[in-house]
Amino acid sequence: MNILAIETSCDETSVAVVKNGTDVLSCVIATSMKLHAESGGIIPENAARKQIEYIIPTIEKALQIAFPHENILARDETFEQIDAIAVTVGPGLIGSLLVGVETAKTLASVFNKRLIPVNHVQAHIYATFLSKTPPQFPFLSLVVSGGHTDFVYVEKHGSYKRIGGTRDDAAGEAFDKCARIIGLGYPGGPSIAKAAEQYISKNPNSKLTLFPRPMIFDKSLDLSFSGLKTAVLRLVKTNEKDNVYSKEQLAAEVQAAIADSLIKKTLRAVESLNIKSVVLCGGVSANIYLRHQMEALLLFNKVSLSLHVPELVYCTDNAAMVGSCAFFNQNNDFVLSLEPNPELHF
Q1: Are 20 and 1 contacting, i.e. CB atoms less than 8 angstroms apart?
Q2: What percent of the chain is helix, strand and coil (3-state, nearest 5)?
Q3: How many angstroms separate the CA atoms of 325 and 261, rounded?
Q4: Distance between CA atoms of 130 and 110, rounded to whole angstroms?
Q5: SS3 for 112?
Q6: Residue 20 DSSP code
Q7: Bridge-based pairing state of the strands 306-308 and 23-31
Q8: How does DSSP classify residue 300?
Q9: Full-prediction pTM beyond 0.90?
Q10: 21 — alpha (psi -120 to 50), left (phi > 0) or beta?
Q11: ∠ CA 26-27-31 to the nearest 5 degrees?
């Protein structure tokens, strides 16, 4: 079964063709990152305008890659290769979501295809099903990105239960805000990771305990990162006079604080669940330090669970994960009257 998948929940315009939920025939991502870097963050109106500009060329390119021998101008023949169309309906930015949803509805109507709505957060989980060794059910998923930090218990396909997560800022949002405070570039996650790597390579034995880990001893599976942001702001202001800490050290300290909070709460969740696998996914899962620390601490604590992290290309927003999620959750088909929902939950 070939699914044409569309992802436009935020600032990435992505289209993919996915076969049977696991085989990616094509995955094209058009990004407006440079535009948002100039403004120091995502301006929703700008993101939506770029979605409009990119969506049709991205669809055509994805189809050309997936079916190189087809005449892309003969769209009826090309769409004969497509069994269904999937699209992210939320959560996300309403303007960006509208572009993807209306495009998918139009294609489904014109070419008489099934239309499958996809929850963006659930789709991140399915990025791991694009690997050769997908997680075994039931499993715990930590979805950690710029807009989401959620612990999700996944019993089977279609069965998702949020059991914890952030009470305020998402981890990716904390990276962005702290990077701005420190004076590093946008997006914050990659800029902090790069600066932190420079510091850690020169100071491999540094304990990195400068900043607090809010709610780390709380028995719940909730997280909070707003306090970390405040602590960073106070220290940076003091450091402007004293000049004790370099940007690289501050970046390493922020990265360690966020990673520690995520990992410690993951271990707490594992202790309370009867699961076979742990999934780390979302844009922040591209952070190499977090990946290594998560793997090391699971091993150190003798947790006999397999850790599954998507390939780097599928960590951030992409349509391949949308196609995979759609294939394994086909019971939730909507009619052509579906509408985007920026506040969509599990």
Answers
A1: yes
A2: 50, 20, 30
A3: 28
A4: 29
A5: coil
A6: T
A7: unpaired
A8: H
A9: yes
A10: left
A11: 150
d(C-alpha 68, C-alpha 270), whole Å: 45
- Owner of token pair 């294609």: 107
Which has the closest alpha carbon to 211: 178, 242, 163, 185? 178
pLDDT in tens, the chain (346 residues): 999 999 999 989 999 999 999 999 999 999 877 766 766 777 888 888 999 999 999 999 999 999 987 665 566 778 889 999 999 999 999 999 999 999 999 999 999 999 999 999 999 999 999 998 999 999 999 999 988 999 999 999 999 999 999 999 999 999 999 999 999 988 899 999 999 999 999 999 999 999 999 888 888 999 999 999 999 999 999 998 888 999 999 999 999 999 999 999 999 999 889 898 999 999 999 999 999 999 988 777 767 788 999 999 999 999 999 999 999 998 655 556 688 989 888 7
Query: For residues 130 and 22, is the Cβ–Cβ distance under 8 A?
Result: yes
AA identity, residue 98: L
d(Cα 97, Cα 226) in Å, to the nearest integer? 27
Burial code (b: 16+ CB inside 10 Å, e: under 16) for 263-274 equals: bbbbbbbbeebe
- DSSP letter at 186 equals S
- Residue 39 CA, chain-centre distance (Å), reads 22
What CA–CA distance (Å, rounded) separates 74 from 70?
Answer: 8
Please answer whether residues 339 and 91 qualify as being in contact, where contact means their C-beta atoms are separated by less than 8 angstroms: no
**Tokens representing residue 180 in the block:** 């701005």
Euclidean distance between CA atoms 114 and 269, whole angstroms:
38
